[in-house]
Amino acid sequence: MHVHVPAQMIPIMGVKFHADKLSPEPVRVFRRAERERADEMLDDYIHQCSQIKVKCEKLVVGKEDAASGLVELIRLHGITKLVIAAAADRHYSRKLDKPVSKTATEIMQRADPSCKIWFVCKEQLVCTRDKEVQIAPSTVAAPLLPNLGHEVLDLQSPQEEGDTEMEPSFDDELEEARKAVEELMRRALKESCRRQKAEEETAASLHKAQEHEELYLEEVKKREELEAALARADGEIARLRQAIQQKHDRGGSHGEIDA
User: Which one-letter DSSP state was computed for residue 122?
Assistant: First the structure.
């Protein structure tokens, strides 16, 4: 049995956003993938049960809260025996004597007293709840159930094993998303500053190049004006020389006639 809780925080490019802040399509796609993973997980359990000739059925229901959903199922179906994970495998120790998972803790407190509950971790019995909680002997070494995974009636989300150990609150998820967004904004601001500095340097270089071009054009203009003035001066000099030469030539001719 699996109580499927639709994810409220949807990962987009490594950052989690609340479903209310996104368009319906990515939310629908992600939640459908989650549901498919849950079905695959339960199908694997059914296969394991069939291998050891144990008859079982699969039941998946959708609820906003896993503990409330399971408590309701216990009441509706008259469930009298339940096996559930007390904590994630990585948190198992011989000192573990009660459920650590938020879901398991709530079920221990709220489930109908007629339902006996076995709390397991890493295939070891942690404790049971009949009319009162009974701690399992620490000498238990053999697996509680052969080849059946960590729980017979599964409540774990298929996303992470750690979900059964500590279910993050909405505030924690929001804080995580906020930090991720702030980091992205910091990187974007840093990149923006870098680009702005590069643009300013490029603009300064272009401005200097424009100034040099204007100076060059001004120098070219002055040179052309100077060359034109020199050409005019050369022309005047040439005309003066020609006039002097002509005057000199006329003066010489008169002298010869007088003689």
Answer: T
How far apart (Å, rounded) are the C-alpha atoms in residues 49 and 161? 21
Closest CA to 119 of 151, 76, 145: 151
Residue 82's φ and ψ, nearest 5 degrees, are -140, 135
What is the average pLDDT score of the chain? 77
Per residue in 172-215, pLDDT tens? 555 666 676 667 777 777 887 888 888 888 888 888 888 888 88
Task: Please report which confidence band the pLDDT of residue 141 belongs to, taking 50, 70 and 90 as the band edges.
Answer: very low
Place of tokens 């620490």: 138
Sign of the torsion formed by the C-alpha atoms of 154, 156, 160 and 161:
negative
pLDDT in tens, 65-117: 888 888 998 888 888 999 888 888 777 788 888 888 888 889 899 998 889 99
15: left (phi over 0), alpha (psi -120 to 50) or beta: beta
Pairing of strands 116-121, 81-85: parallel
**This prediction's pTM:** 0.48
Residue type, 146: P
**Do the Cβ atoms of 3 and 73 come closer than 8 Å?**
yes
Please give the C-alpha separations between residue 172 and each of 2, 6, 9, 95, 169, in angstroms, as whole numbers.
24, 17, 11, 28, 5
- If you ran DSSP here, which 8-state letter would residue 142 be given? S
What is the distance between the alpha carbons of residues 9 and 14, in angstroms, rounded to a whole number?
12
Q: What is the DSSP letter of 80?
A: -
